[in-house]
Write a structure and sequence with these properties.
The chain has 311 residues and is α+β, with helices and mostly antiparallel strands. It has twelve helices and eight strands. The strands form three sheets. Strands 3-4-5-6 form a four-stranded antiparallel beta sheet, with no helix packed on it. Helix 1 packs across helix 2. The longest helix is centred in the first third of the chain and has 19 residues.
Length: 311
């Protein structure tokens, strides 16, 4: 693929046809890797970036309107639902496409991967249901863009893609998805939250937008220190919407022996995913809790065999 594809074209204004031609191959590539319909990716890029002509697309290479939410990279600020909101800034628009695919790997979007890759209508409605956008007409807007521009022709089924989807569903979400019969809805101080049971036998709730340890503790009549301790939280960390937040102590080990690290994963997120104490995972792997992880590394979630023999 030519590097011209990712060049910054300055003040050039793109037509919709030019935008589709420029990014369709990237959307298809991401579909084959992640199982997200290319038509949905393109339609979201078109809608969120104004065919690549928005301020965020021009100044931040952000084609999907993804906000910071714990982002450690460069940032830009603009008015959106509130004044001066924080948005992610990328080195290239291609990085924005990759991050969009990674962003949709979060637990709150997990149910979408049960849909067929050709079901763009189901995906459009599901994105709104999961809270991707606040506009009540968001599904209709995406579907309209897809059908007017015949984008669904890029949603091709292949044996390779179906294999990726099958592996993605069985591996990525096996730990995150709670048992349905474990859900308990409670209300405190006018707030309702669902308490669910993790596969590692720990109760948790799902973070809502703007949540921190104090707000969750207040809703559940718990102490703030409990939420922080149970979730290895330091300071006034703002949780990302969809995060697993434990209301009981995490375990010292998980049922799976280890996890193979994928792009963008960190120790804290994996500690939450598997319900294992952060310091324990670090100890099992001779790491500090702030260390970066290497893609493809085997991360032990319990004492590895060599440690067991010494104890």
């Amino acid at each position: 693929m030519s590097c011209i594809l990712f060049a910054n074209d300055g003040d050039k204004r793109y037509s919709r046809a030019e935008y589709i031609q420029k990014w369709k191959d990237v959307a298809i590539s991401n579909m084959e890797k992640y199982g997200i319909p290319a038509s949905i990716t393109l339609a979201q890029g078109i809608l969120e970036s104004g065919d690549g002509n928005s301020m965020l697309a021009k100044e931040a290479n952000n084609h999907f309107g993804i906000k910071c939410h714990g982002w450690k990279g460069k940032k830009v600020f603009k008015d959106d639902d509130a004044k001066d909101e924080c948005f992610r800034k990328y080195k290239s628009a291609a990085d924005s496409y990759a991050d969009h695919s990674e962003f949709l790997q979060k637990q709150r979007y997990a149910f979408l991967f049960d849909l067929k890759v050709t079901d763009y209508k189901g995906w459009a409605k599901g994105l709104k249901k999961a809270g991707y956008a606040t506009n009540p007409k968001y599904p209709q807007l995406l579907i309209g863009i897809i059908e007017k521009n015949d984008l669904h022709k890029y949603d091709q089924k292949t044996d390779e893609l179906m294999a990726v989807k099958k592996e993605h569903k069985s591996k990525k979400y096996k730990v995150k998805r709670p048992a349905k019969e474990s859900t308990e809805v409670i209300s405190f101080s006018g707030s309702t939250r669902s308490i669910e049971l993790h596969t590692n036998r720990i109760k948790y709730v799902i973070a809502q937008e703007g949540d921190n340890a104090k707000s969750i503790a207040a809703d559940l009549d718990m102490a703030e220190w409990q939420i922080k301790k149970y979730n290895d939280v330091v300071g006034g960390r703002i949780f990302e919407e969809g995060d697993i937040i434990f209301i009981q102590p995490k375990r010292n080990k998980s049922k799976p022996d280890y996890h193979i690290v994928e792009h963008g994963e960190n120790l804290w997120e994996l500690s939450q995913q598997y319900g294992v104490k952060l310091k324990k995972i670090a100890q099992y792997n001779s790491l500090s809790v702030t260390d970066d992880l290497l893609i493809g590394m085997k991360l032990w979630l319990k004492k590895p065999p060599d440690i067991k023999r010494k104890t």
